[in-house]
Amino acid sequence: AGPHGFTEILYALTSQGNNNGSAFAGFGGNTVFYNVIGGIDMLVGRFGIMIPVLALAGTLAAKQVVPASAGTFRTDNPMFVVLLLGVILIVGGLTFFPAVSLGPLVEQLSHGRFF
């Protein structure tokens, strides 16, 4: 219940969407509702990503190759790898940061009034 319960639900659904399936110890996820939502979450987590990626690959495969010029960003050096990983980590972290930090912060500020 309360902000801790929100964090438990968010963690469980995020874990199911990534095909892991772990949850907090206090989360009672063996109900019809959470089983159905978890199954839908796993389907969307798998096929909801796979289908757009395959569509993007199909459109990129159909494009013509453009010769490199002075303004072309090279993708065969370590700088590209560092920038790509940095963007992935920053965007991924910023996506979940507000929701993941909301539960513990509200729980701390409420001083245990929710439980």
UniProtKB/TrEMBL annotation:
Keywords: Cell membrane, Ion transport, Membrane, Potassium, Potassium transport, Transmembrane, Transmembrane helix, Transport. This is ATPase, K+ transporting, A subunit. It holds the Pfam family KdpA. It comes from mine drainage metagenome. The chain crosses the membrane at residues 43-62, 82-106. GO terms for molecular function: P-type potassium transmembrane transporter activity. One of its GO terms (cellular component) is plasma membrane.
